[in-house]
Amino acid sequence: MSSGINKVVLAYSGGLDTSIILKWLQTTYNCEVVTFTADLGQGEELEPARKKAEMLGIKEIYVDDLREEFVRDFVFPMFRANAVYEGIYLLGTSIARPLISKRQIEIAHETGADAVCHGATGKGNDQIRFELGYYALDPNIKVIAPWREWELQSRTSLIDFAEKHQIIIEKDKRGEAPFSVDANLLHTSSEGKALEDPAVEAGEYVYQRTVSPEDAPDTPTYIEVGFEKGDAVSIDGKPHSPAELLTALNKFGGDNGIGRLDLVENRFVGMKSRGIYETPGGTVLLAAHRGIESITLDRGAAHLKDELMPRYAELIYNGLWFSPEREMLQAAIDASQTHVTGSVRLKLYKGSVSVVGRSSPYSLYSEQLVTFEDDAGAYDQKDAEGFIKLNALRLRTLAARNAQNS
Fold this sequence. Notes:
Elements: E1 7-11, H1 16-29, E2 32-39, H2 47-55, E3 61-65, H3 67-80, H4 97-111, E4 115-117, H5 126-137, E5 142-144, H6 155-164, E6 180-183, E7 188-191, E8 221-228, E9 231-235, E10 238-239, H7 242-255, E11 260-266, E12 272-278, H8 280-296, H9 299-317, H10 324-336, E13 342-349, E14 352-359, H11 367-370, H12 383-404
Parallel strand pairs: 1-2, 1-4, 2-3, 4-5
Antiparallel strand pairs: 6-7, 7-12, 8-9, 8-13, 9-10, 11-12, 13-14
Helix pairs in contact: 1-6, 3-7, 4-5, 7-8, 9-10
């Protein structure tokens, strides 16, 4: 077909779906394809993706290790906000998409491609996240979304296409997969098929990064996480790079059964979906960050952050990482982190994480003020009477009016 598209950068995993998309692009658009595979810490060997792309005749192949950039420039800024979607989801899939979009656009510019392509379906959030990222970074880029264009609407039709074009199909891909999995250094996400009925408990086989809390050690694990300006920088006094630190926290959390979530969420496209998430390191990190903020943030700043957080989280969930409103919120959040420095001691035990100690050179906590012993005049308790009466003034006025008119 004549489409004006000569070269496409494909987000390529090496799996069945994106291998079919690769061939479909070649046959449908008669164009050159550049493959891009991102290492975000999903825990899989990525060289097979390179070899498979080579077998399919691809000349320009990118396999990029983005783990440090992912944690440093995307995960950590999000955790400065303590962001959770709908009160519980730590946004592991959502926060990975803007980085993939960013790198795809960079590769498109490097290679002279005029289009980018993703493998997200027309029912999910990822199509929105990818494409909002693309257009924010290059308003003139052309976007190809095969699941919204092609007629391959079933697993059988996909396999038939693969066999027709001699695309290698792993044996375990020939049947219906029990569920789909997306993974990166922050989390794993399992959805669909065997997990679609929200009334049925997910089997233990679904979980990949965490032991069952019942099988976790019978003695607690204690760790100390160090922070500088809102970002975690060390564990038990040992400095780590961002990706190294999250990897270590994943091990601590996973070994103690921490970070499992069975969630029915509201997708941006309008439907509800059920997902099983594992975010062991992120769950530990969130508890630690809130712990250090509890002694370093002023009450007004802390409460304002908590008010802004749901909006910030929703922006990330909806794919608006590159929007001006997210950047405005990020600037405010980052400004609040100037003195969020110190260390937090955590107790990890059978699926739970608890803050059991916190210290900071910038602590606002004063033992002299809160003590039940003699505070040597640091706080005059008589001052509380006027404070209470002033705050009660409107309540007393309302009560008097209501009594007069009853």
